[in-house]
Amino acid sequence: MVEVFAVASGKGGTGKTTSTVALGMALADEYDVTIIDADTGMANLLFHTGLANVEVTLHDLLIEDRDCSIEEACYNRHGMRILPCGTSLEGFQNADPEKLQRVVANLATDTDIILLDSPATLGSKNAVLPIVLADRTITVLQPTVPAVSDGLKVREYARSYGTGSAGVLFNQVTEADSLGQITDRIREYFDGPILGTVSDSDAVREARSAGRPVLEHAPESPAATAYRRAAAELSPTPRDIEAVANRFSQAIIPDSP
Amino acid sequence: MTSAGNRLVESRVVTDLTPVLTKLFEDELTGQLVVEPADSLVLESEQGCEITLVEGIPRAARGVDSGRAGNTALESVGTLGPFHIEVYTMDDLEWEQSAVIGPERPAELLGGDTALVKAIRETSPEQIEDSSGTDGLADFLADTDRIESIRSEARREAQQRAAEWGFDDVADTPD
Q1: Confidence check: pLDDT of A101 > 90
Q2: Which chain A residues are within 8 Å of B109, Cβ to Cβ?
Q3: Residues A51/A75, Cβ–Cβ less than 8 Å
């Protein structure tokens, strides 16, 4: 089985990558998990997972003349298979988005769950592609008007492209925030449950500074606990490999002119 | 967005948008900044964006030709210059709810300048206050007209771009 989730937000700085890694680690207790940095323009998964110095990344798989296998670009860390993306401008400019689709389809053949760390923008087809490829979105929101407004746009794009909703993960929540008054509307507008509420905390910031996942750096912290609970709420749905392949084949992108 | 009393005060090509945004902020300009990647003038792309400012604070954005609104219009510009810019002062400004942007978003998305982002945040407390905190968020979510405006605009964009990018097979057919 495989289910593909796009971890998305529409606004930068909401903690998508931190959440992708944390949810992936929590799910990896039960499932075979692959996480992919699909933000080919502003990659940072490698900095969160201790892979900052690796030479082969997703960029190498998306560039036409690189002779590189998917296995070479994937790294087994923190109980998961991780496909980081490089940060070079050359890699970004030469990356062919159509190849991302093939990479995801290939990895889908031997994993239970794929998490796509998605770009914080809807400004290009590269940025929107993870939402098209995913079965469901996990929308990461700070409880602010700009974050929710941008998240609504992402959710509406996803709905338009037939991608379901796994729900909302509130992140970087402060003590002053009172979420009780907004949860009903959020569930309604985002077509799904509130998966969890992760507080703004020193544990998350320290883990980020150390380049380590929060579930490894501070496994007993409230943030780590909140991520584990959120992962338990996801209830991955077994999907037939052929159905997934069919979905990818529908999302065909024409060659660039 | 509609406008009256427009006056073109600057038109040039720049490689970096941060100094442009910083100057408009410092000059407290009320008007519009029109940004287009220089390539797009030749290639007829739809990357141009009009950013509406009130006293130097960005309030709204709309695509010049694309019809995109809000952050999506900003993001379409991209970060790779050079850019052709035009600055207009305007006496009267209006914009649609779907075009509203966080005041710091142009500096974040187009300039990448954290000092300017911080300065804008500190100088526009009424917008920041309005857009932060769960009381403000509860009011926002209760404004069903505003929410529907954002959602319908996003649906329209998604459908339009599905055709543009070859996602037709997965996209909903427009009503």
Answers
A1: no
A2: 121
A3: yes
Instruction: Please tell me chain B's helix, strand, coil percentages from 3-state DSSP, rounded to the nearest 5.
Output: 45, 25, 30
Whether the predicted interface score ipTM is above 0.90: no
Stretch 58-87 of chain A: residues touching chain B, C-beta under 8 Å: none
Using a CB-CB distance cutoff of 8 angstroms, which residues of chain B are in contact with residue A200? none
φ, ψ dihedrals at A133, nearest 5°: -75, -25
Instruction: Report the DSSP beta bridge partners of residue B58.
Output: B53
Instruction: Report the Cα B34 to chain-centroid distance in Å.
Output: 10
B100 and A254 within 8 Å at the Cβ level: the answer is no
Measure CB to CB from residue B158 to each of A161, A178, A247 and give the nearest one: A161
Q: What's the pLDDT at B41?
A: 56
N residues, chain B: 175
Q: Is B71 helix (H, G, I), strand (E, B) or coil?
A: helix
Measure CB to CB from residue A148 to each of B140, B142, B155 and give the nearest one.
Answer: B140
> Per-residue pLDDT tens for B4-58?
468 899 999 998 888 999 999 988 899 999 998 876 655 556 788 999 998 888 9
Q: Parallel, antiparallel, or unpaired for β B7-14 and B83-89?
A: antiparallel
pLDDT digits (tens, 9 = 90+) for A111-163: 999 999 998 888 778 888 899 989 999 999 988 888 898 899 999 999 999 99
A194 membership: H or E segment, kind and range: strand A194-199
**Six-digit token pair at A151?**
């998240």
In this prediction, residues A168-188 reach a mean pLDDT of 88
Quote the pLDDT of residue B34.
Answer: 94
Q: Searching chain A, which residue's CA lies closest to the CA of residue B108?
A: A12
- CA A230, A111, A204: angle at the middle one, nearest 5? 35
Strand partners, A170: A141, A197
More confident residue, A84 or B102: A84
Highest mean pLDDT (candidates A36-45, A209-218, A222-231):
A222-231
Q: CB-based contacts of B8: which residues, under 8 Å, 6+ apart?
A: B86, B87, B88
CB contact under 8 A, B137 and A145: yes
What are B12's strand-pairing partners?
Answer: B85
Q: How far apart are CA A100 and CA A83, in angstroms?
A: 11
- Answer yes or no: do B131 and A144 touch at CB < 8 A: yes
> Chain B contact for A194, CB < 8 A?
no
> Which pLDDT score, from 0 to 100, does residue B78 have?
76
Read off the pLDDT of each residue in B132-142 and give the average, rounded to a whole number. Answer: 78
Tell me which residue in B142, B154, B169 faces A156 most closely, judged by beta carbons: B154
Q: How many CB atoms lie within 10 A of CB A189?
A: 22
